[in-house]
Amino acid sequence: MKNINEIIKMYKVIEKTIDLGDGRNITIETGKLAKQADGSVVVKMGKTILLAAVVSAKEAKENVDFMPLSVDYKEKYASLGRFPGGFLKREARPSDYEILIARLVDRALRPLFPEDYHADTFMNISLISADKEIMPDALAGLAASAALAVSDIPFNGPISEVRVARVAGNFKINPTVSELEEADLEIMVGATIDNILMVEGEMKEVSEADMLEAIKFAHEAIKKQCQVQIDLANEVNPGRREYCHENNDEELREKVRKETYDKVYAVAMKQNPSKHERASDFSAIKEEFLSQYTDEDEVDEGLVGRYYHDVEKEAIRNMVLNERKRLDGRNTDEIRPIWCEVDYLPAPHGSAVFTRGETQSLTTVTLGTKLDEKKIDDVLSQRSEKFVLHYNFPSFSTGDARPYRGVSRREVGHGNLAHRALKNMIPEGTENPYAIRVVSDILESNGSSSMATVCAGSLALMDTGIQIKEPVSGIAMGLIADTKADKYAVLSDILGDEDHLGDMDFKVTGTKNGITATQMDIKVDGLSYDVLAEALEQAKQGRLHILNKMLETIAEPRPDLKPHAPRIVQITIPKELIGALIGPGGKVIQEIQKDTGTTIVVEEVGNLGIVDVFADDKDAIDMALQKINLIVAVPEVGEVYKGKVKSITPFGAFIEILPGKEGLLHISEIEWRRLQSVDEVLKEGQEVEVKLIGLDEKTNKMRLSRKVLLPRPDKNNDK
């Protein structure tokens, strides 16, 4: 059998190392695994290993004029020696976490494929070995880019992605899970060796300057990782495939531009605030152009549509740069009209409507118990979340006639951004015993529905009576830049059209004190940090304006929950009494819940039992608390109790003075007179008042007396 080293040589295995500068290394290996893919690499850091493999079709499908890229990120349970949950015991559909990581990689890769490359391309990234302290998502972008680097697929990379966190005042690249728990800033940054492409993350009310410094710090690390990929590609030397995915007609392109540009510019200059009316006017120009052709004429309407889209984009961008005006007539830093309303829905525990221009969110808040918390069972994380946010984007919000086909990746991503924006403002511990679900339904959409969700979510939480630390607002920023002419315009509160036609989509959320979350996608090369700083400052002014509009509707959280909202009363009991409260097989606690109509949740924390009693009715909670207190009460010597005779023996009776707590009433302690039999006075089931007169030193069993509560007979009369 051949030596393993000889086999490796035969496979032409190449390995490169990235030094993180603090004793940690990342290695990239190619040539050993998944060799039938167009490109494949193995990325290792500690025990964490990712396999990335990419395949791209040799030819594009007919009538495809976009980049059909699909990115899938999958974490194998076997990577950590775990079985998947569920009946089938195998990996199923991607979790929200896997979808979010796939989106992060996709957003960084997609802009760097050639504009005329339209072949189906599939990027698969798998976690095949895991380390609980090393977060694999920070390596996924590097793995994907490296797989493209060693392939022949046309790609204007490489790129890389890193996580940067500020721990104890210092920035760190790809921190451990433990370190991340102490961080006040955590962002993922994707970039080429020259330009920032993508930023996403959360912060605990940090300044714009701090966030900018974190981005710069991340980019320096990314430059090194990109250079290693360049060295790897040069050694593999795959070459780049030739392709032709577009058939162009330059004469037709020029004709479309010549006959439509001025008309498009004129429509843009009307500055019509109605999205649908603008779209209709732009569409009419294209239809007018096509009307000059008869059925006998051979004209490719697909090409006309593509060329007209380019003209539309150019004319609108030039209008903004030249006139400093926007499609709806606003100035570059102007926010659309805002109106808000809270307590819109009478039945939910809290609700709000937030409308900004043609974007509208109807958001509700539901309160629940610990049993309602979201259970997360990912490969690397098993926990529960007491605060969840769900974002829904029905087709009618944009006037589209199409069916609903389940939650999209876009909905998961937008919901996650809003969740990160709000979560650090939710009170913790005893200040908030509730599980909280926020649901945002987008009823209209024309630009930044995720930021409308943040604003509506803050309003709805305050309407509920949840004492959030600070209200949060959000804004979407845009950029139109002409780097050749050195002209640019930073746009506040962008429209959907401006998002599509612009060079940057930048969302930022925060309180009056600082930023809580951000998401940025940059499509233009050479964006300076000065421009980015200007965009951040303009975003700050915009979100503070929006925040002030929100506070005009509700200035602070309601002092109390609404009358119909459920209540939770939280008490603590000694750890050793948890069993008594639950009872054998849960019998005791189930009986209390049935009798009182409450929900009771018991959690062991340290040496205490945390008991949550949950109900819509205060009387029900009081009744349940009374029953619980009886069970967990510690009998005190000298106290009088009304008990029940549980059993009778020749030497006395056992009396239950508290639920589950029995003591012995000796025959000599029943009455002052001498009894021949206990049955003379007591029967099973009989209620009787007794006094706790002592505890046995050895067994701690209770000694009871009835006679001490009775008048002592006169000795003379007794004679």
Number of helices: 16
Q: Helicity level, as a percent range?
A: 25-40%
Tell me the number of strands: 29
Instruction: Report the uncertain regions.
Output: none
Assign the CATH topology of the largest domain: Ribosomal Protein S5, domain 2
Your description of this structure?
The protein is an alpha+beta fold. The protein has five domains: 4-236, Ribosomal Protein S5, domain 2, CATH 3.30.230; 250-323, Polyribonucleotide nucleotidyltransferase, RNA-binding domain (Arc Repressor Mutant, subunit A); 338-553, Ribosomal Protein S5, domain 2, CATH 3.30.230.70; 567-632, K Homology domain, type 1 (Ribosomal Protein S8, Chain: A, domain 1, 2-Layer Sandwich); 640-718, Nucleic acid-binding proteins (OB fold (Dihydrolipoamide Acetyltransferase, E2P), Beta Barrel), CATH 2.40.50. Helices cover 31% and strands 30% of the residues. It contains 16 helices and 29 strands. The strands form six sheets. Strands 8-7-9-10-21-20-18-19 form an eight-stranded antiparallel sheet, with helices on both faces. A six-stranded mixed sheet has the order 1-2-3-4-6-5. Helix 6 runs antiparallel to helix 7 (275-290) and helix 9 packs across helix 10 (449-464). The termini are far apart.
